[in-house]
Write a structure and sequence with these properties.
It comes from Apteryx mantelli (North Island brown kiwi). This is Galactokinase. Belongs to the GHMP kinase family. GalK subfamily. By secondary structure, the chain is of the alpha+beta class. 38% of the residues lie in helices and 23% in strands. It contains eleven helices and twelve strands. Strand 9 and strand 10 form a beta hairpin. Helix 2 packs across helix 3, helix 3 packs across helix 4 and helix 8 packs antiparallel against helix 9. The radius of gyration is 21 Å and the shape is globular. It starts with a helix and ends with a strand. The structure holds 2-deoxy-2-fluoro-alpha-D-galactopyranose (GAF). The site of 2-deoxy-2-fluoro-alpha-D-galactopyranose has 11 residues, from helix 5.
Length: 385
């Protein structure tokens, strides 16, 4: 956080007339180890918070105006927005530029008030549209910043839910709760098994020095606000309704097979992914607890194949990256991570194989890949500068 906050503080001085910001907040992106497209089905997910994140630095003002500049790479123009603090009579609404919608949404859904005006600068090292949850890290960093201006009750679950609501209503993305939850609740040295129905969590240690987590960015940018994500969600709801269940979390593979005739082939395959993935995620968390990395890796590969064939959210580039990773000695498993259609893969491997794996993948991949060896980080934090 320190380097990003210092860079943002410099930009703050230039944008807002030389003064130093008094406040800073940081929130991480995430990589999901397994449990994909299960969160909005009330299932399990197993993400970890990254060391990559988004920082907001700023100070309150007396004029009731919010001015925010982003320095994040890839953000659309204009990079500076100004708008009055929202009130009952004049709420905020989404618009252009798109990056500001995540910030405005969080301000609109903030759980305490009244907020003062403020000046702020955003900096981020989470690649935008890279499937590492740049949006949730921006939302949670914004919320954490607002908590310093006007403290809320400190309820972490409510904080994650408010950020999710911001994404639904201001970015038009009907996401599940995984990304905001891990960005708030992440713990250094741990992955987090989240039950997305009860919101109960179990910390799973991930500190074995002989192990590495390699994130590989395909640099194919994904956009999830298109029609694919909402349409997958609807298909899952359709399958659950046909099975007479509130969500696919409550359905079994045997029930799905028995009802196969009532479903279209496509909806059947979507449900088969989700039901199978929920089971795999629980097994994977147990395997990780037991340091059984071979089983974990096998489940990762099964997850990828199911996302590719049944859920149809992978793409050629992600398939190529996974195939190349699996050729390397010392790799336990590899899969696409996040919503799909581009973005990143995650690979679990022996630490000693990390360099070799990157070289091999680079040589095999038809595009240009970017690599991150990551360790599980803490969730969002605030800091006085
Ligand atoms: C995106 C969503 F934001 C998450 O809620 C989750 O559904 C994920 O795709 C797929 O697992 O990141």
């Amino acid at each position: 956080m320190a380097a990003a906050a210092a860079a943002a503080a410099r930009a703050y001085g230039e944008a807002f007339g030389g003064g130093a910001p008094g406040l800073a907040a940081w929130a991480p992106g995430r990589v999901n180890l397994i449990g994909e497209h299960t969160d909005y089905n009330g299932g399990f997910v197993l993400p970890m918070a990254l060391q990559l994140g988004t920082v907001l630095v700023g100070s309150p003002t007396q004029d009731g105006v919010i001015s925010i500049l982003t320095t994040a790479e890839g953000a659309d123009e204009p990079r500076m927005v100004r708008f009055p603090v929202p009130s009952h009579g004049s709420p905020l609404s989404p618009g252009q530029p798109r990056w500001a919608n995540y910030v405005k949404g969080v301000i609109q859904h903030y759980r305490a008030g009244p907020l003062p005006g403020f000046n702020a600068v955003i900096a981020s090292d989470v690649p935008l549209g890279g499937g590492l949850s740049s949006s949730a890290s921006l939302e949670v960093a914004t919320y954490t910043f607002l908590q310093q201006l006007c403290p809320d009750d400190g309820d972490l679950e409510a904080k994650a839910l408010a950020c999710q609501k911001a994404e639904h209503t201001f970015a038009g993305m009907p996401c599940g709760i995984m990304d905001q939850f891990i960005s708030v609740m992440g713990k250094e040295g741990h992955a987090l098994l989240i039950d997305c129905r009860s919101l109960e969590t179990v910390l799973v240690p991930l500190t074995d020095a002989s192990l590495a987590v390699l994130v590989t960015n395909s640099n194919v940018r994904h956009t999830l606000t298109g029609s694919e994500y909402p349409s997958r969600r609807r298909q899952c709801e359709e399958a659950a309704a046909a099975l007479g269940r509130a969500s696919l979390r409550d359905a079994t593979m045997a029930e799905l097979e028995a009802a196969r005739e009532q479903l279209s082939e496509e909806v059947y395959r979507r449900a088969r992914h989700v039901i199978g993935e929920i089971e795999r995620t629980v097994q994977a968390a147990q395997a990780l607890q037991a340091r059984d990395y071979r089983t974990f890796g096998r489940l990762m590969v099964e997850s990828h194949n199911s996302l590719r064939d049944d859920y149809e959210v992978s793409c050629l580039e992600l398939d190529e990256l996974v195939a190349a990773a699996l050729e390397v000695d010392g790799v336990y498993g590899s899969r696409m991570t996040g919503g799909g259609f581009g973005g990143c893969t995650v690979t679990l491997l022996e630490a000693g194989a990390a360099e070799r794996a990157q070289q091999h993948i680079k040589g095999k991949y038809s595009g240009t890949a970017t690599f991150y060896i990551t360790k599980p980080s803490d969730g969002a934090k605030a800091q006085l500068l």
